[in-house]
Model the fold of this input.
Amino acid sequence: MKLRTKIHLFTTLLMLSLLIFIHIGIFLLYEQLSINTEVEQLQLRGEELLTTLNKVPAVNTDDVLRAYMPTNGKIRVFDENGNKITSVEYTLSLADIQIDVSEGKSYGKTTIDGQPVIMVSYPAIWVDGSIVEIQLIQLLNDLARNKELLKLILIVVTVLVAIPILLSNMALSSIIIKPLERLSSAMKKNATSRSYEKIELSKVGKDELAEIGRTFNFMMEALETNYKKQEQFVSNASHELKTPLTVIESYAKLLLRRGFTNEQVANEALEAIVSESSRMNDLIVQMLELAKNKEHQAPKITHLNVIKLLENTVSQMRQAYNRNFILHCEKDLWIHSDEQKLKQLLFILLDNARKYSEKEVIVTVRAIDDKVSIAIQDFGVGIPKENISHLFDRFYRVVKDRNRKTGGTGLGLSIAKEIADILQIEIEVESEENVGSTFTLFIPETIQQNEVDSE
Ligand code: ADP
Done:
């Protein structure tokens, strides 16, 4: 069964049954209240009759009974043995009617031809001194008529109310289902045509369905961006891998042709092959680093002494490249962060500073409010202003030729940015061409665990 039919059927049935239930309640209540009122009046009549019977002379009993006879009813008197002494009646239909007063009730009730009949009875001392039972019986034909009328009114009201209920339920199911149907058809279309089409949304909609629509559009946008990024990455990666492979291939061919007879050519070819293979190796390692699933890179947070960490990192750089790295620090500073990831980030920036400059590299550590800043300053080629915003894009290099010499891949800063995001570190870049560059990290003293979890 379709969701639309289910909602429609369920709400309509529920509302109709509620309506019918309420109407049956009204009907029964009306019947009971009417009978109670009639019984009370009959009891009053009976009590007045008893008082009068005690006062009037013996001969006039039938007249007295007739005076108190209820409309559409009768009064009858039985002796102790149950034999009828006398009776006065208004209608013959009540001739020999038998009514029992059930236990705990002050009156008896039965029906004749669908019309209710009530009876109250009293023990009394008859004019001759014997004990008798006086019964007052009344046919409630007015009540029967009113009940029929009420029944008709309630049925008409039920039918009349059922129509708007039905219409409003149809409208309601359309309101709920339409956006879901649009969503479902957009999903199907996107799945079959591998597109990222969004659905049209009303600008004013604030309900849950509008929220689902907005989330869907947001998801499509994110998927499309991701897909484009991936496409770009694959095309960049294959392009980047193609260059060293072509170089290797051409030198290998040269080696085949002339390498065995000419030692100089052989050396040149092998050197080029070794250098390009190691470049390819670096590239692949960095690409794998970027391809790692972010979720599996949850940081291992520890309490770190920033100065010690920097002294250690900087001394490793000095030893590896025999360059002048100077460390300036104010005092002992502590942060909560992931030591390995932070070191990896520092290595990327220190390595860039080394690669793109000839002079010393200065590392300055400061405490700023609740953050610790680490500035890595070089006095090298610098970066033109218009290139700074692209630095963290994958495979981006300021000058391609410059990169050839330094052996860079254009992936270092992308990896640095991803690590910085995981560690909630901000990176600021200041640079001037032919003057130098400063990459500054702003590290929070404490990492917000919930933000990391949601990464
Ligand atoms: P690469 O492997 O090419 O160094 P990166 O992503 O680390 O890749 O850097 C991207 C580009 O940014 C580099 O190719 C270089 O042109 C420029 N760059 C990065 N750091 C510096 C720096 N300290 N000085 C000058 N240029 C830099």
Observations:
- Residues 208-289 form a domain with the Helix Hairpins fold (CATH 1.10.287.130).
